[in-house]
Design goal:
7 strands, disordered N terminus, 12% strand, 268 residues, alpha/beta
Length: 268
């Protein structure tokens, strides 16, 4: 029996389909390589040291010392010794300094219009960056309802103003560097997993963590453990909605806030 051998390369001409496939494959490889190179060159600007006004720099250095001290102590207020303020209770009233160095009383704000009172994480926390982004997206809608957005920060007025400018934070920023207002509204410390999102916490690495972020937007400052919260207060000064974060980025959904805000705004 004769075995016929065929030379498939002699006289073979590529079909249009084969040519197209080869071209598409080349384009795909080019895109993948380009994306890989681009990904390597993308720099997170929040992790790069940047210039600061002298007063902000000094305040940041002091706030870093505070952070490391509290980090080494660990969370201290993990439970209430009495029931915190709830929906239906009168909202605690305080006079605080704004980011523009003006003394503002909370009751003066909610006497004018309902208030969405947001207690912020420390200014170097990525969870705060996330909340700033969501506030930017919803601020105009909230303002159109006739609601005042008020943000309580752990930073001094100058540092709060610098933060608001860097992150385009909208709303009235008030300073509570001693955490007095945070505690009055029943905000607790989170434990390691609640703050860092992992059960395996090495509490001895605080100094190293901080060193890697000095001078950046993510500088570890103020209270590392204090969890945020959000409250809606009506014009009579009564809390109509109380939301205390269960973990660092436990940000309420906008639809949830919208329902609660509309209920307050349109209440008869």
């Amino acid at each position: 029996m004769k075995i016929h051998k065929f030379n498939n390369t002699i006289g073979w001409k590529p079909t249009i389909t084969a040519v197209l496939f080869k071209s598409l494959l080349s384009i795909l490889m080019l895109v993948l390589v380009t994306n890989a190179i681009h990904a390597q060159t993308i720099v997170d600007s929040t992790r790069i040291a940047r210039p600061m006004p002298e007063i902000v720099k000094k305040q940041t250095e002091q706030a870093q010392e505070e952070w490391l001290k509290l980090w080494n102590e660990g969370p201290t207020e993990l439970a209430w010794d009495k029931l915190p303020v709830q929906e239906g209770n009168k909202a605690p009233d305080f006079e605080l300094e704004s980011s523009s160095k003006e003394l503002i009383k909370l009751s003066d704000l909610w006497n004018e219009k309902p208030v969405l009172l947001i207690f912020w994480r420390h200014t170097g926390c990525g969870c705060g960056f996330m909340r700033a982004d969501s506030i930017r997206k919803s601020y105009d809608k909230i303002a159109e309802m006739g609601v005042e957005v008020v943000i309580i920060t752990q930073a001094e007025p100058e540092r709060a103003a610098f933060y608001a400018k860097e992150h385009s934070v909208k709303g009235t920023l008030l300073s509570d560097p001693n955490y007095q207002v945070y505690r009055a509204y029943g905000l607790l410390d989170g434990n390691g997993p609640q703050i860092l999102g992992t059960p395996d916490i090495d509490y001895t690495i605080g100094e190293k963590l901080q060193k890697d972020r000095i001078g950046t937007q993510r500088a570890l400052v103020d209270n590392p453990w204090l969890l945020p919260g959000e409250f809606i207060i009506d014009k009579s000064g009564v809390i109509q909605f109380a939301y205390r974060y269960g973990y660092c980025n436990d940000i309420p959904e906008y639809w949830q806030l919208e329902i609660e805000l509309e209920a307050v705004v349109f209440a008869k």
